[in-house]
Design a protein that fits this description.
The complex is a heterodimer of chains A (114) and B (116).
Chain A (H helix, E strand, L loop, with lengths): L4 E3 L2 E4 L5 E6 L6 E7 L6 E7 L2 E4 L8 E5 L5 E5 L8 E8 L8 E2 L3 E5 L1
Parallel strand pairs in A: 2-11
Antiparallel strand pairs in A: 1-3, 3-8, 4-5, 4-9, 5-6, 7-8, 9-10, 9-11
Chain B lengths: L2 E3 L4 E5 L4 E3 L2 E3 L5 E8 L6 E7 L6 E3 L2 E6 L4 E6 L8 E11 L2 E6 L3 E6 L1
The chains are: A mainly beta (114), B mainly beta (116).
Chain lengths: 114, 116
């Protein structure tokens, strides 16, 4: 079974530029999460999708971050414009949903904003 | 609100020593799930175990064991006879039902270094 695919693995941009991350979930997984993990900290949930609907985006900085999940499958996370404090690893996780809620993580995208 | 506390930021042990990683959680819900994830240097979090709030049985899987105690709101993780491959950051997480979906809260992680 293929795992969660994320791209790119690394991205370096200058502040005020735009960047997009892509996530392809495990087939059949209804729930998809985007996390921001700053060095030395735990994952912080940015947005959670159930199929193609948003169920939690309370911690997403909506003035600069946006995310969508196309047809309930792939998802993209965009930052526009980026700030220095956005430097972090962006993790995508997916799950079957429901109470079991085991999350399967991708390798992440390491973003450096200069 | 939910909260997960991992008070140990970093732990170093010598190979073959036993080590326990602490996790304390807070929730008012009576139904919840607890998890442990491992994040090796490669960066990808890997699921280790899930426990629901109604199952306080301890679990052992090889060198790993978990002790769940509702009375102290703790879900501790012990590695017996640690190995260098156990070096990683370990996260405890809590999942509760909120508004029709499961809301997950991660702790800040404990970095374990196993010295050969």
């Amino acid at each position: 079974e293929a795992g969660v695919a994320q791209s790119p693995r690394y991205k370096i941009i200058e502040k005020r530029q735009s960047v997009a991350f892509w996530c392809n979930p495990i087939s059949g997984h209804a729930t998809l999460y985007w996390y921001q993990q700053i060095l030395g900290q735990g994952p912080k949930l940015l947005i959670q999708f159930q199929n193609n609907g948003v169920v939690d985006d309370s911690q997403l900085p909506k003035d600069r971050f946006s995310a969508e999940r196309l047809k309930g499958v792939d998802s993209t996370l965009k930052i526009q414009p980026a700030k220095l404090e956005d430097s972090a690893v962006y993790l995508c996780a997916t799950g079957q949903g429901g109470g079991q809620n085991i999350q399967y993580f991708g390798a992440g995208t390491r973003l450096s904003v200069l | 609100a939910q909260k997960v506390t991992q008070a140990q930021t970093e732990i170093s042990v010598v190979e073959k020593e036993d080590v326990t990683l602490d996790c304390v959680y807070e929730t008012r819900d009576t139904t919840y799930y607890l998890f442990w994830y491992k994040q090796p240097p490669s960066g990808e979090l890997v699921f280790l175990i899930r426990r629901n709030s109604f199952d306080e049985q301890n679990e052992i899987s090889g060198r790993y064991s978990w002790n769940f105690q509702k009375s102290t709101s703790s879900f501790n993780f012990t590695i017996t006879a640690s190995q260098v491959v156990d070096s990683a950051v370990y996260f405890c997480a809590l999942s509760v039902r909120s508004g029709g979906y499961q809301k997950v809260t991660f702790g800040t992680g404990t970095k374990l270094q196993v010295i050969p």
